[in-house]
Amino acid sequence: MSDFLRELHDPDIPVPEGIQSAVAVTRLDKLLSTVYNWGRHYSVWPMAFGLACCAIEMIAAASSRYDQARFGMEVLRPSPRQADLMIVSGTVTKKMVVPIVRLYNQMPEPKYVLAMGACASGGGPFKEGYNVVSGIDNFLPVDVYVPGCPPTPQALLHGFITLIKKLDSQSLGNRNSMPWYSRGPSDAVPVPILGPDIIDPRQLHMIRRYAAQPEPTDESAAVEAEA
User: Domain 42-189, what architecture?
Assistant: First the structure.
C-alpha cells in the first residue's frame, strides 16, 4: 500500500480538499438523503396566499426581472394540496388565521411556512391590535422569517435560499429533522376558535382551569387588602 492510501485510511490525517469535493457520500443513509434533498432542492411549490401589501412584493418576485424560476418556484399553486410552502405575506387578522390553519392542514407533508414581513412575523405596526394576531408563529410552525415592511423581492429570494439550505441539511436518518417519516400519521394543527376573541384550542385547559377558580368575594378581598 502506498503512502497516499495509508493517509486515506488513517483517521488522524484529514482527507485532502480535492478528494473531499470528488467524494459525494460515504454512507447509505447519506446517499439517500442527498438524492432525496436534491429532488426537493428545485421543486418547492409555494401557495398563492397574499394578505396585504407584502403580497405585491411577492408577486414582483415572481416576475421575470427577479427570475424566481431559478429556484423551481415559478408557479404559485392555487390549491394547498399542490403546495409544500405557505408564504404568509401580510397582516394576519384574527378572522383570517382560521382559514390559514385549515389550509396548512390540507397541505401534504413535507410542508414549510415562510413568514413574510413584520406583520406576519410579529404583528408589525398593528401589534397588540384588537383584531390582529401578533405573529403567525403563535399558531403555525414557521421555518423562515423574512423581515421588512414590506420586504423587497430580493429579501424574499434570500428567504427562499435560506429555506433551500434547510432542506439540504435535513437527513432521512434523523427523525427530528424529518418528523413526517415517523410512525403513524402526523397530528393536525388545531384550528383556532373564533369568538369574542381568538382562542387556541391547545390552551383550553388553561382557560378552563382559570374559569374554575372561584371569584373572590367582597369579604375575602377586604381581608387581603388589610393583610
Answer: 3-Layer(aba) Sandwich (3.40)
